[in-house]
Amino acid sequence: GVFAGLPDGFQTTRYHSLAVERESLPPVLRVTAHSDDGVIMGFQHTQHRVHGVQFHPESIATQHGHRLLRNFLDLAGIP
């Protein structure tokens, strides 16, 4: 997934208060990341190659953002 090879518990940056509510998440979406206070920050479809994050991996303030984006491009088959 997009978090492959990344350490647990790294710092990310978000510029909004929007969030997916856990109760509204369909069973086909699995939570892959959350904030310290339990807000969903990442999810993955269980049957398709669909991944999502609710933070800004492109931000200079997000640790390991370049690696996360590289993982995404690799999953999409983009060199």
Question: What's this model, at a glance?
Answer:
The chain has 79 residues and is an alpha+beta fold. The chain contains one helix and three strands; from the N terminus they run E-E-E-H. It has one helix at residues 65-76; strands spanning 29-34, 40-45, 51-53.
Description:
- The chain has one helix at 65-76, and strands at 29-34, 40-45, 51-53.
- With 79 residues, the chain is an alpha+beta fold.
- The chain has one domain (1-79): Rossmann fold, CATH 3.40.50.
- Strands 1-2-3 form a 3-stranded antiparallel sheet, with no helix packed on it.
- Strand 1 and strand 2 form a beta hairpin.
Strand order of the largest sheet: 1-2-3
Oligomer classification: single chain
Rg, Å, rounded: 12 Å
CATH superfamily: Class I glutamine amidotransferase (GATase) domain
Mean of all residue-level pLDDT scores: 94
Q: Helicity level, as a percent range? A: 10-25%
